[in-house]
């Protein structure tokens, strides 16, 4: 009997780590579980809105990788046990076909409506102040 292997899927892992050197541990964890990292963002230091595990600062980064779906749970468990990883989130980026996007933009998918020119109403000269009676007369003319 021939076993069919499921295809690898693309994922994105966002993470907060305690120090700048800990980002390599995240990449190594993915490699240990058979993931292929194809993009790694530079890690930047951020100020946290509230303390996370008694830390007020952390380093944020993200990785895009390809992996088997069943390996994601193992990666998550390993990262939860890692003391240097404060938080992480694994998502599946939306799949968009380039041909569909190009076709939609060429076919005028987003059409802009032309606005009809607004009728210019005669304005009262700004040199003199209008009285309440004059304003009421103007309103009656407009509402007719």
UniProtKB/TrEMBL annotation:
<dbReference type="InterPro" id="IPR014717">
    <property type="entry name" value="Transl_elong_EF1B/ribsomal_bS6"/>
</dbReference>
<dbReference type="GO" id="GO:0003735">
    <property type="term" value="F:structural constituent of ribosome"/>
</dbReference>
<dbReference type="GO" id="GO:0005840">
    <property type="term" value="C:ribosome"/>
</dbReference>
<keyword id="KW-0694">RNA-binding</keyword>
<dbReference type="InterPro" id="IPR000529">
    <property type="entry name" value="Ribosomal_bS6"/>
</dbReference>
<keyword id="KW-0689">Ribosomal protein</keyword>
<comment type="similarity">
    <text>Belongs to the bacterial ribosomal protein bS6 family.</text>
</comment>
<protein>
    <recommendedName>
        <fullName>Small ribosomal subunit protein bS6</fullName>
    </recommendedName>
</protein>
<dbReference type="GO" id="GO:0019843">
    <property type="term" value="F:rRNA binding"/>
</dbReference>
<keyword id="KW-0687">Ribonucleoprotein</keyword>
<comment type="function">
    <text>Binds together with bS18 to 16S ribosomal RNA.</text>
</comment>
<dbReference type="Pfam" id="PF01250">
    <property type="entry name" value="Ribosomal_S6"/>
</dbReference>
<dbReference type="InterPro" id="IPR020814">
    <property type="entry name" value="Ribosomal_S6_plastid/chlpt"/>
</dbReference>
<feature type="region of interest" description="Disordered">
    <location>
        <begin position="102"/>
        <end position="129"/>
    </location>
</feature>
<keyword id="KW-0699">rRNA-binding</keyword>
<dbReference type="InterPro" id="IPR035980">
    <property type="entry name" value="Ribosomal_bS6_sf"/>
</dbReference>
<dbReference type="GO" id="GO:0006412">
    <property type="term" value="P:translation"/>
</dbReference>
<dbReference type="GO" id="GO:1990904">
    <property type="term" value="C:ribonucleoprotein complex"/>
</dbReference>
